[in-house]
Recover the amino acids of this structure.
């Protein structure tokens, strides 16, 4: 049971006070907040941020105090010697000591964030225009591909290999850790360790073209058993359509050239240009966090890609008859 004084003290701690202030100011919901950490890396970054913010506040107050004092003090109140010491002490010694301290503290945080020891899971993520290609390798050796959604087991260190086929993106899950650029021709590494379960949001943090702001992804941190079940499910081929409408949707999907770009494992669709759709109906969002994953959104997306996501590579199929679009939407959203 927290005592009253204990909870008051907790509320008045610098972290608690600052967080309360920031929440008031921005109303951030925590799904995509570096200041509401759910991972080891994010925790270190948040601590560094609070130390720097606290220090900046103290220094600002001191400088303001001296400035106000200077406007009030008599010009002859301090000798040339006192003035010289204020300049040397406040202008040279103090900044050198403070900035060196902060630099050492920041550098000391880095090795633990980059350590590749005790990695429990490896995930490859490629930044595409404008979506995220995510690949897992299961223990059985199956390669599992999905898009715009990353699921992780809580409490395990996960090594990400980050690449891009064309332009520079930056991979960022603020709740879990720092951001790392995805650079064509390079493979960058990032290690994250989620500390609590929940659904978080990842984003691209480097301007990469017209729809840079429309490439987001969901990050679901799960209990390890639930994660293992989920990954085994993702390794399965797509389920067969189970209604006449879905069957019509599958026929429309295969006959309109969708399979040139998309894979649906277990069918003849084996394109690799666009997102793998084997279990697209089970995802939390559509079009990289742009639309909800329901039947209406699938239909809207297929018919109006460019209006929803400027410069997207997938052409709009608005010329197809409405019933074909509807059937396709039912087929795809049924791919759980
Ligand atoms: Cu990808 Cu910005």
């Amino acid at each position: 049971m927290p005592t009253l004084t204990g909870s008051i003290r907790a509320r008045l701690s610098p972290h608690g006070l600052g967080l309360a202030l920031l929440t008031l100011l921005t109303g951030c919901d925590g799904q995509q907040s570096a200041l509401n950490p759910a991972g080891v890396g994010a925790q270190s970054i948040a601590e560094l941020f609070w130390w720097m913010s606290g220090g900046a506040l103290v220094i600002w107050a001191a400088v303001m105090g001296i400035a106000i004092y200077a406007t009030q003090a008599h010009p002859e109140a301090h000798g040339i010697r006192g003035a010289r010491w204020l300049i040397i002490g406040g202008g040279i010694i103090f900044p050198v000591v403070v900035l060196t301290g902060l630099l050492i503290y920041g550098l000391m945080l880095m090795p633990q964030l980059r350590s590749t020891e005790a990695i429990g899971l490896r995930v490859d993520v490629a930044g595409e225009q404008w979506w995220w290609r995510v690949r897992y390798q299961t223990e059985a050796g199956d390669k599992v591909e999905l898009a715009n959604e990353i699921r992780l087991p809580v409490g395990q260190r996960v090594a990400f290999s980050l690449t891009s086929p064309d332009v520079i993106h930056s991979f960022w899950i603020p709740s879990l850790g720092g951001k790392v650029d995805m650079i064509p021709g390079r493979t960058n590494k990032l290690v994250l360790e989620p500390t609590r379960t929940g659904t978080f949001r990842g984003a691209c943090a480097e301007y990469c073209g017209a729809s840079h702001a429309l490439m987001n992804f969901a990050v679901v941190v799960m209990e390890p058993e639930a994660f293992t079940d989920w990954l085994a499910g993702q390794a399965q081929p797509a389920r067969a359509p189970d209604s006449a409408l879905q069957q019509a949707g599958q026929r429309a999907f295969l006959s309109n050239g969708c399979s040139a770009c998309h894979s649906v494992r277990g069918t003849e669709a084996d394109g690799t240009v666009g997102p793998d759709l084997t279990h697209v109906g089970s995802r939390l969002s559509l079009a990289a966090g742009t639309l909800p994953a329901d039947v209406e959104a699938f239909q809207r997306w297929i018919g109006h890609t460019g209006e929803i996501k400027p410069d997207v590579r997938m052409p709009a199929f608005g010329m197809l008859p409405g019933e074909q679009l509807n059937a396709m939407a039912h087929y795809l959203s049924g791919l759980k």
Observations:
- The longest helix spans residues 80-114.
